[in-house]
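Risk register update: the risk of archive-format incompatibility is retired. Evidence:
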Amino acid sequence: MAMKRRKLGNPLALAVMATLCQKPMHPYEIAQTLRRQGKDISTKINYGSLYTVVQNLEKHGFVEVTEVERQGNRPERTIYGLTDAGRQEMTEWISDLMAVPVKEFPIFETALSLMGVLHPDEVVRLLEERLKNLEVQAASARGALEKLYETLPRLFLVEAEYQLHMVEAQAQWVRGFLEEIEKGSLPGVDGWRRFHDTGEMPPEFQDWEAPDTET
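Archived output:
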């Protein structure tokens, strides 16, 4: 099943709609609620652009003005609520994200794909540094989760659990990959090392071309 092309692709728009499920709010209250409920951990939230996101949601009929508050001499505040179309869009969007895997492009994958320009010994040093950072990050996240479990139901912490699991999985992979390079069991590592030691491209690397993986 392919993921549907959305009118709005910014995940912040989805977070706003999900927040408005709780009750109608003005944009500042939306921002405060997102921060208070920890959604800035799992979603990149640019609070400066939140008003623009709300305006775009209104433009597409996903939210609507429900009230304009006026309190004394304070500037009026526009309250927005989720429309039926917005609720449907939100539900379908979350369903797609939950069910349909999509190819993402983490910057670490880019670095791995280009690491051949570095000497294997340098790659080992850098990955050892990364592994230490990942272990510190995992320990910190584990401690924070244990604290959060004391006050919040696990239902509201699953994204933090997932993030911790991904950090631990990456650390495990880096640990194994380091061992392959250091033991020389990684296919092609001898040619890689020879290239950096002599400046000559090994014959086995010449005219190499990746297979076409597109379907």
